[in-house]
Write a structure and sequence with these properties.
The structure is a single chain. The chain is an alpha+beta fold. It contains 20 helices and 39 strands. The chain has an 8-stranded mixed β-sheet with strand order 1-2-4-3-7-11-8-9, with helices on both faces. The protein has a 5-stranded antiparallel β-sheet with strand order 23-18-22-19-24, with helices on one face. The protein has a 5-stranded antiparallel β-sheet with strand order 26-27-32-29-30, covered by helices on one side. β3, α7 and β4 form a beta-alpha-beta unit. The relative contact order is 0.10.
């Protein structure tokens, strides 16, 4: 009864709303009164301007946020917070889309915690959990990263709403998914799946969206207010309000950050698009309707990616126009052109400074359309000073995405207010959706697409080979740029003026075609102004001093790339835990198979910041009060060190190594020796244990890799996707520890091995079994019975695991072993004439079970001999006479 009543009310609301639209006027604003007090309304002329410049497809949006009016997302249950599609409604919407070219899986279950606890004892009380959907779009309809990458097409990944109160990108992801999945959609993008594959994280910050807050409460961070309070574990503490997921791409503190990096590392996307939205103060006249597009740079990645990404006016000026890639429209220009074609203004990303300088000051936030202000616009002088665009801060999502060796881009959707206001909400949604569609079209273009793909492939090769750092920034080929000094940009940024690149601003003025006394003389009209802008574009460096000021005591910012980093120190357990965190950069991690004594470079920590061992507040002017830099001085030397067996080794001949280096070099502002977010009662030092005048526990091996005998220990790509829980960290087990689980089963090399800790949300959960080229059987360790047990893939390649597969400290062990023998048999049935029916049977033999493949029948001639495919195997069969089998053998698996 309730559902019927609800549906009837919704239909009535939609009927009357549709009637209001019929005359072409902007719809009544259903969100007035639901946002911040200063954002409760917009002038009707501004609302009409937005509506008139909106494509019909956006006016017809069918997301639940428009079709189910009256629903509020806020956990607080108050109407003063914004509205957005509910998590359950989002899932229902996505599940209803055509599935021929779209696969959706839940790849985690994310918990959010109580943020109102008054004592540390109440810390960690969960409020609710969220299934985390991942959508994959391919022509072939596959989901797994191995299958998607095997298609050979560039993979593009888009994310919605990393900040919880910036929901428009999430709504845009929903409609983009419809355009990709539905070939009948009026704006379908489905044909482009012939050339590209697309991965969508529709709702990045699931709990922040639900709470309508910027941050995420998937990790509760606390700090003590004094040393004495920490020693006594007293109530003298304060809670750090949430965690900004857009500052967590090197620390990997939130389970959401770890999950997203696992997705990145598994699918290896060529472009990562990150959707944001910013509020514009109506009191400064900036009722603009636009999108800021920022393609980030990093000195540890090849400059060719910059040229392919940046606006052609600024990026191509330094290059010979005869080069192939310099003559291709940049991605930035393609995105701007797409937005402008739909009536949306584009602007540079503004990181600092006020938007408008005014000649007069009035307290009314809507002064611009009241009284003498709008009627006498000369009272306002609109001025734009030069400003900074972007920075290479590796903890931010778009820059970390660039460290993937592809394109990392931030889209900042701009319109009044931070929340979801009426017609402006349609524009916010459409802006990000339009950007994503333009990138898909660019990579699918028959000319441009192969150049973009080759650019990324070449970049990753150069990053692995150590040839990616730009000339002029280093004196050694292959160096890592660790800490970027901002006091001297060394002419590496461009300051320029570009016609049409000003800041678009909507102003309310008197109609210039009317005179005093004419009808409408007292009704304002919209005028668009472009405030002339001078842009300080960050190509390599940041003009903002976002690094800790004390950090300048370190006398180096560029270091020679070592052959490998070796992690070693007195606290071996802490070293391994830190390495497990480094794994989320995407590097493969090795361990020494035997002890070795070798010469290495080492650091000695010579200076700490004040009160380094306890939380000190902020020395970072980047909205990261939870992080302060502790190491302010370090000296470098050389010596011979004896490293014990099983020491952690990270080779740098992989394209993810620059990101790992930023966590391991003490000059890196976000290195693991510095203070980070910490959980209640945890140690107040960094992830890596460091001490004054002691060795930094990361050594730089500069010799030949053949001097190190190592074995594979871990790789985030080896982690499965799970449903019903989430993975906390991988486990870097030793060879002996692995053998405890696998020796009784595996007779040869393992095909896959995955060991990790989960946050146990339910007794049972599911793991998405990774496919490998060679066939084999998956096993899970049964801790209750002390043995490995076969697990089988169920629906959608997920295997059901039980509480018995979760061991001490929530450990899970999964591995795939190949059969010790594969046998084949065959029989022939005589038919009329020269035709016979050949049936082949294939069985895999394991230590504890057998796997029989479904027999396959072939029509053959008398005395035929040939090779036939049965399951994953090639089988040779030679027949004789009518029904005799001369020879039957397995040749191997199908390549």
């Amino acid at each position: 009864m309730f559902k019927k009543r609800y549906l009837l009310m919704a239909m009535l609301i939609l009927f009357f709303a549709s009637s209001a639209f019929a005359g072409g006027g902007a719809p009544a604003n259903p969100y007035r009164g639901t946002n911040n007090v200063s954002e409760t309304t917009l002038p009707s002329a501004i609302e009409q301007y937005y509506w008139d410049n909106l494509p019909q497809a956006a006016k017809d949006y069918d997301m639940p946020t428009f079709t189910r009016p009256g629903w509020s997302s806020s956990v607080r249950g108050s109407s003063v917070y914004g509205r957005m599609t509910a998590h359950e409604d989002m899932i229902e919407y996505l599940e209803a889309l055509p599935k021929e070219n779209m696969q959706m899986r839940f790849v985690a279950e994310i918990l959010t915690y109580n943020t109102s606890a008054s004592t540390p004892e109440n810390l960690g009380m969960p409020v609710r959990s969220f299934p985390y959907p991942l959508c994959v779009f391919t022509r072939e309809g596959v989901f797994g990263p191995e299958e998607v990458k095997a298609l050979g097409k560039p993979v593009l990944l888009f994310e919605g709403s990393i900040h919880g109160n910036e929901s428009a990108a999430m709504e845009g992801m929903m409609h983009l998914a419809k355009r990709l999945a539905d070939p009948t959609h009026v704006e379908t993008l489905n044909p482009l799946l012939d050339k590209v594959s697309v991965v969508i994280i529709p709702r990045y910050n699931v709990d922040g969206n639900w709470k309508n807050i910027r941050e995420s409460d998937t990790l509760q961070a606390w700090h003590y207010t004094s040393t004495a309070a920490a020693d006594a574990k007293s109530n003298s503490f304060s809670r750090i309000n949430g965690l900004d997921l857009n500052r967590d791409q090197t620390g990997f503190e939130s389970p959401i950050t770890r999950l997203v990096n696992q997705i990145w590392n598994a699918y290896e996307p060529y472009l990562i698009g990150d959707g944001h939205q910013q509020g514009i103060s109506t009191g400064t006249s900036a009722w603009n309707n636009g999108i800021a597009i920022l393609f980030t740079s990093n000195p540890n990645t090849p400059e060719e990616l910059d040229v392919l990404a940046y606006d052609g006016i600024t990026a191509k000026s330094d290059y010979n126009d005869s080069s192939t890639w310099a003559n291709v429209d940049s991605l930035e220009w393609i995105a701007k052109r797409a937005a402008r074609a739909e009536g949306r203004d584009t602007m540079p990303y503004v990181g600092t400074g006020s938007n408008v300088s005014r000649a007069t000051t009035q307290p009314n936030p809507y002064e611009f359309y009241t009284g003498s202000t709008w009627s006498n616009p000369a009272n306002y002088t609109l001025v734009r000073n030069s400003f900074q665009e972007g920075n290479p801060e590796e903890g931010i999502t778009d820059t970390a995405g660039r460290l993937m060796g592809g394109f990392g881009v931030l889209c900042e959707i701009s319109s009044p207010g931070q929340g979801q206001i009426g017609v402006a909400y349609h524009n916010r949604i459409r802006s990000y959706e339009t950007f994503c569609a333009s990138m898909i079209e660019a990579f699918a273009d028959p000319v441009r697409g192969p150049i973009l793909k080759a650019g990324v492939d070449n970049a990753r090769k150069a990053m692995a080979e150590g040839t990616s750092v730009r000339p002029g920034l280093t004196t050694h080929e292959g160096d890592f740029v660790i800490s970027i000094k901002n006091t001297n940009p060394q002419h590496l940024s461009h300051e320029y003026g570009v016609p049409g690149e000003g800041i678009p601003t909507l102003r309310l003025v008197r109609n210039p075609e009317l005179t005093a006394g004419d009808p409408g003389w007292n009704t304002p009209v919209v005028r668009k102004d472009f405030i002339e802008s001078w842009i300080h574009r960050s190509r390599y460096v940041s003009a903002q001093d976002y690094r800790n000021s004390a950090h300048t005591a370190l006398d180096y910012s560029v270091v020679k790339r070592p052959t490998a980093y070796i992690l070693h120190g007195p606290d071996a357990e802490a070293i391994v835990k830190a390495a497990e965190r480094v794994a989320y950069t995407g590097v493969k991690i090795e361990r020494l198979a035997e002890a070795v004594t070798i010469p290495v470079e080492f650091y000695t920590v010579t200076g700490f910041g004040q009160s380094f061992q306890y939380f000190r507040g902020s020395e970072f002017p980047t909205g990261v009060p939870q992080l302060s830099v502790g190491i302010t001085g370090a000296s470098k030397g050389e010596k011979v060190v004896e490293f014990p067996k099983d020491s952690v080794v990270i080779y740098t001949n992989q394209y993810k190594s620059p990101h790992a280096a930023l966590t391991l070099e003490p000059a890196g502002a976000r290195n693991f020796g510095n203070y980070w977010y910490s959980r209640a009662f945890s140690k107040k030092d960094g992830f890596l244990p460091v001490a004054l005048n002691q060795d930094f526990p990361v050594y730089r091996f500069m010799g030949d890799a053949s001097e190190l005998n190592t074995y594979f220990a871990g790789d985030v790509k080896m982690l499965p996707f799970v449903s019903g829980t989430h993975i906390e960290f991988p486990l870097l087990l030793t060879q002996e520890e692995k053998a405890e689980f696998t020796d009784s089963i595996a007779r040869g090399p393992l095909l896959a091995f995955s060991s990790f800790k989960v946050n146990m949300l339910a007794e049972d959960f599911e793991a998405y079994l990774k496919k490998t080229q060679r066939p084999g059987a998956w096993y899970a360790w049964n801790w209750a019975e002390g043995r490995a047990e076969v697990i089988t893939a169920g629906e959608n390649e997920y295997a059901k695991l039980t509480v018995d597969n979760i061991g001490p400290d929530n450990k899970v062990i999964l591995f795939k072993a190949q059969a010790f023998e594969v046998v084949a048999d065959a029989k022939v049935e005589k038919l009329n004439g020269n035709q016979n029916k050949l049936t082949i049977f294939v069985t895999e033999l394991y230590n504890d079970h057998e796997v029989e493949y479904v027999p396959v029948t072939f029509m053959i001639n008398n005395n035929a001999a040939g090779t036939y495919k049965v399951g994953p195997y090639n089988v040779y069969v030679d027949t004789k006479g009518n029904t005799q089998i001369r020879e039957c053998k397995v040749l191997g698996f199908v390549e």
